Amino acid sequence: MRLRRPPPEKRIDLHALARRTAVADARRILYETDDETLADQLELVRIPAPPFGEAERADRVRARLEEAGLADVVIDDAGNVLGRLPGPCEAPPILVSAHLDTVFPVETDLTVRRAGERILAPGIADNARGLAALIALARALVRAGVEARHPIVFAATVGEEGVGDLRGVKHLFREGSPWRDAAAFLSLDGTGRRRIVHQAIGSRRLRATVRGQGGHSWADWGIANPIHALGIATAELARYVPPRRPRTTLTVGRTGGGTSVNVIPSEAWIELDLRSEAPRALADLEARTRQALEGAVDEVNRRRRLGTPPLELEVEVIGDRPSGMTPPDSAIVAAARAATRLIGEIPELAASSTDANVPIALGIPAIAMGAGGISGGTHTAQEWYVNEGGPEGLERALLTTLALAEPA
Questions:
Q1: What pTM was computed for the model?
Q2: From residue 71, how far is each of 108, 152, 393 by CA, in Å?
Q3: All domains in the chain, ordered by first residue
Q4: Residue 383 pLDDT more than 80?
Q5: How confident is the model over 35-52, as pLDDT tens digits?
Q6: CB of 140 closer than 8 Å to CB of 88
Q7: Are 229 and 311 in contact (CB under 8 A)?
Q8: How far apart are CA 50 and CA 274, in angstroms?
Q9: Environment class of 235 (CB within 10 Å of its CB; exposed 0-12, middle 13-18, buried 19+)
Q10: In 304-330, which residue ranges form alpha helices assigned H by DSSP?
């Protein structure tokens, strides 16, 4: 992805901004409508939304954004839901986003349960909370009559999780898209009131498939075995210690192959997740991984019975998330820090892999932050949410957005 130099950034006195009549009204509305926000969260979490299966949830979010009063609410070609705050459209926009999808397959039981203050349901925090926050911000800004120099565009994106490979936000920022000129991008992802994700962790996800002739485990013994090759490669990669700075990781996440315990398989595969804070380190790790795979296949081929066919290796890129950093002294990070302090919390800068990866890599000022509340068990069937500090998290997001949008 090409990089571009962001425009000069203007800083705003956040305390003075928060006291403006329309802004103060929007802040108040967030607290007064907290029950409505939680109701949206509970409704949305019950709608299945695995990557490539977000349509039903997208349609409901579209309806809620229309009800909130946004203008020009549409679902684009990728499945993203887009709408804008009514008002002038001349200046570069501020994009506020939350992802629609979850990690859970469509057949997952999404029944909402309660255990004391905890609300339990798969996806209740990641990212039903972010979507409910997106709707809440739109509702508060419209009801308060907030107007800003920069248009504020709300986006509920598809494909943030796993195999979705950021496809929704990649579509938004594709070559030739008008959003490439965005003034800033803010992703509402999960919960919390302190973290500010300004560093994008890049990842390359690979699927390595080894194919051979296959045969009977006794009669055809000596034929090259794909699982043996992948086992050797996995063992070598498991012994490798990636650099700590920049932080870099390698995980073999899935594996499969074979038809029976007494059959030499004709095919086997593994899927690998490679991550790093730095593009060069990620490229080096990918090169090492491919070398290990090729070496293991060569080793098994050298040992195969004379006259039998060799194994063949195919490595497919199934995920590619760019890395980068929004500078800690940038206006968007400064605004998020100030907003965090204003709600009485201590800001924490962090690195993660979110929808913000794509605009960050393009040089667009971008961050991700939680949308209030606390949670645990993320990406498990026991995921839970407690609405402690929920409105405060929304207020933080509101003030960060308005600090960039420059209210009239």
A1: 0.91
A2: 34, 11, 25
A3: 14-201+323-405 (3.40.630.10), 209-321 (3.30.70.360)
A4: yes
A5: 999 999 999 999 999 999
A6: no
A7: yes
A8: 22
A9: exposed
A10: none
